[in-house]
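pinging the channel bc i need a second pair of eyes. not urgent but kinda urgent?? the chain im working w is below, pasted from the shared doc
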Amino acid sequence: MISLKNFFRTGFSAIAIACLLNITSCNSGSKDTIPTENDNSSPVTSNTTSTSDAATTQKVDSATTIKTDATHSNSNAAAQVVTIENMKFNPATITVKKGDQVTFINKDVVAHNAAEVNKAWISPMLQPGQSWTFTPEKTSDYYCTVHVVMKGKIIVQ
């Protein structure tokens, strides 16, 4: 029969291992990884037309297709892209015009989301390769609820 002392030692060891595995899964790259630049100097404009479908697709570049929620679509709006990569929002601060769309693309190896600090809006959990588009109504600070050190800001003019 297992003694109570051995039971607790084994149980706590399993918890410690689980915690360490969770922490190491947050490390998305090595120290040698250099993040790519995304200065959003040339905003991507939406050329999709609104249809009766719930969503439309938009090509950002040759490798990325964004699924856009048609209920938030504005064919005259510009699209600003925030890339989630190396445990950071890139760029961390963006300035958009009222009515512009913001697309978060997760290019990291773990899931992330973006949530306004007062919970005015929150994205779904974005798995690697997924994206989410919305139209911000006002200036707001945001963060990832899973990795609270990841922070950003959207300035709406």
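so DSSP finds one helix and eleven strands in the chain. and The two ends are 69 Å apart (CA to CA). — does that match what u expected or am i reading it wrong
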